[in-house]
Each structure stands twice: as structure tokens, then as C-alpha cells.
């Protein structure tokens, strides 16, 4: 599966958002990742649906909304109407994840479910066949520029196997501390959508940063428990 790059505008200059979006899409980024924080689920407050509505007029790129909010059921409709293509909520914020996925689909969007670093993949196992994407947080949500948590690739790999076994059509997105080095690790583990904020917007040459994060395509063999080139994940 080809890798998709989703620059997070959290690290962009908010006073020049349209230009900042154009800069990364001109450089080949497929998605625009929008980090929505409510000051409750995570400490900061960032972007509301009105910003997505304005961005929708400026770009044809896939708008990938990452809701880091309590009560996501109250926000889904506004973001869908504002023009979001993908809406992802955190499984930790709802007792009714399946219902929320259905609601997102009814509104014409793709549905993602996000997992904090401390949440096990077993929390979303039953959702894999319904969701379009699972977002594995590789830092604790809340801020850009944090350090990648080294144990997360094995979680990505577990998820990759679950999806493979179910033969489900479900993307794996990773978010937090992604750069040219950590990209290789998460792509080998099975992630196909890579969010990056500081590594892209903090780079002098944005196009080069995107190219470095995208890296070379990794060919995954399916049911690869006994593949010799899969060392490092055999213990799973
Ligand atoms: C973290 C956000 C991320 C963040 C990533 O709460 O969900 O999308 O912007 O930033 P970097 O790539 O700098 O870790
Ligand atoms: Zn995010």
C-alpha cells in the first residue's frame, strides 16, 4: 500500500493557514491533518469547524480531522458539514464507538478511531471491520513536537495482523514524533498514513522533508509469521 502523508497544521503559522496548506500540498502531501483540541480531553484549545469550513474553500486535499475532544458526538455533524473527509474520534471519549462510526458514515465521511498510547488494540478489535482507519497515537495527544514512544510500532504491527486476518479494508494512521527515521519503523510495522507536524513545518525544505518521511515503498507479505525478513516482530 502506498504511503500517504498527512501534514499536521498544528505546527503551521495559523495567521497564514491557506498558504501553509498550499505549501505542503504543492509538495505532494495527500491529506491535511487538523488537530481539534477542546481544553478538556487534552489541555490546549486549537481549531474548530469554522476553520475547516474556510480551509475547504482553499484546498482539494483530503481533510483529515483528528478530534481530541470529550463528547465527540456533539462535534461530528459540524465538522462533516464544514467539509471534513475523514473524522477520527478517540475510543477513550465514548461508550458508543460503533454508533459514532455509523453516524460519521451517514454524514458522508470516512470514520477513524484513535487510540492513546496507553490504550490496547483490544479496545477497538470489534470496530476494525466498521472503521475506515485506526489512528495509533505514537505520542500522548496534546502537543506537537513530542518524542516518539518506541514501544508503539509493536502495537501497530499487532493491529496490522488483526486487520490482515479479518481481511478488512482499514487504514493504519500514526501520529506523533514522526520524522524520516521513525517513519521507516512505523511503515515496516504496517502503518500507511503518516501524520507529521514539526518534522514538516519545521523543515527548511518542506518538499524534501515530505519525501524523506515518505521514504521507499515497503512491500508487505501477508501472513508473514514465518518470513525470514520479518525478524523483530516474530515474538508477536
Ligand atoms: C498531537 C497531535 C499531532 C501533532 C503531531 O496531539 O495529534 O497531530 O500535531 O506533531 P508532531 O509531528 O510534531 O509530533
Ligand atoms: Zn493529530
Write a structural description.
By secondary structure, this protein is α/β, with parallel strands linked by helices. The protein has one domain (4-214): Aldolase class I (TIM Barrel). It is built from 8 helices and 8 strands. It has helices spanning 17-26, 49-56, 76-82, 97-106, 152-166, 180-189, 198-201, 206-214, and strands spanning 4-7, 31-37, 62-68, 86-90, 110-115, 133-137, 171-175, 193-196. Strands 1-8-7-6-5-4-3-2 form an 8-stranded parallel β-sheet. Helix 4 (97-106) links the parallel strand 4 and strand 5 (110-115). The relative contact order is 0.16. The structure holds D-xylitol-5-phosphate and zinc ion. Residues 8, 10-11, 33, 35, 66, 139, 141-146, 175-178, 195-199 line the site of D-xylitol-5-phosphate.
Please give the structural blueprint:
Layout: E1 4-7, H1 17-26, E2 31-37, H2 49-56, E3 62-68, H3 76-82, E4 86-90, H4 97-106, E5 110-115, E6 133-137, H5 152-166, E7 171-175, H6 180-189, E8 193-196, H7 198-201, H8 206-214
Parallel strand pairs: 1-8, 2-3, 3-4, 4-5, 5-6, 6-7, 7-8
Helix pairs in contact: 2-3, 5-6, 6-8
The structure holds D-xylitol-5-phosphate and zinc ion.
Amino acid at each position: 500500500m502506498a504511503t500517504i502523508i498527512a501534514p499536521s497544521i498544528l505546527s503551521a503559522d495559523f495567521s497564514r493557514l491557506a498558504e501553509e496548506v498550499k505549501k505542503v500540498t504543492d509538495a505532494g502531501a495527500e491529506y491535511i491533518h487538523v488537530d481539534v483540541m477542546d481544553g478538556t480531553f487534552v489541555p490546549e484549545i486549537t481549531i474548530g469547524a469554522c476553520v475547516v469550513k474556510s480551509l475547504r474553500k482553499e484546498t482539494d486535499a483530503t481533510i483529515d480531522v483528528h478530534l481530541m475532544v470529550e463528547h465527540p458526538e456533539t462535534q461530528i455533524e459540524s465538522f462533516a458539514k464544514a467539509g471534513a473527509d475523514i473524522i477520527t474520534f478517540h475510543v477513550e471519549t465514548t461508550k458508543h464507538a460503533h454508533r459514532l462510526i455509523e453516524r460519521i458514515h451517514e454524514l458522508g465521511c470516512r470514520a477513524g478511531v484513535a487510540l492513546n498510547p496507553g490504550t490496547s488494540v483490544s479496545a477497538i478489535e470489534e470496530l476494525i471491520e466498521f472503521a475506515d482507519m485506526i489512528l495509533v497515537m505514537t505520542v500522548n495527544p496534546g502537543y506537537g513536537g513530542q518524542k516518539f514512544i518506541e514501544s508503539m510500532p509493536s502495537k501497530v504491527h499487532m493491529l496490522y495482523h488483526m486487520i490482515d486476518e479479518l481481511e478488512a479494508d482499514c487504514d493504519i494512521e500514526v501520529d506523533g514524533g514522526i520524522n524520516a527515521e521513525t517513519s521507516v519503523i512505523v511503515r515496516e510495522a504496517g502503518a500507511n498514513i503518516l501524520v507529521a507536524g514539526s518534522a514538516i513545518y519545521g523543515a527548511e525544505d518542506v518538499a524534501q522533508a515530505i519525501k524523506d518521511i515518505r521514504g521507499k515503498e515497503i512491500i508487505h507479505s501477508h501472513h508473514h509469521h514465518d518470513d525470514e525478513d520479518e525478524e523483530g516482530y516474530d515474538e508477536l
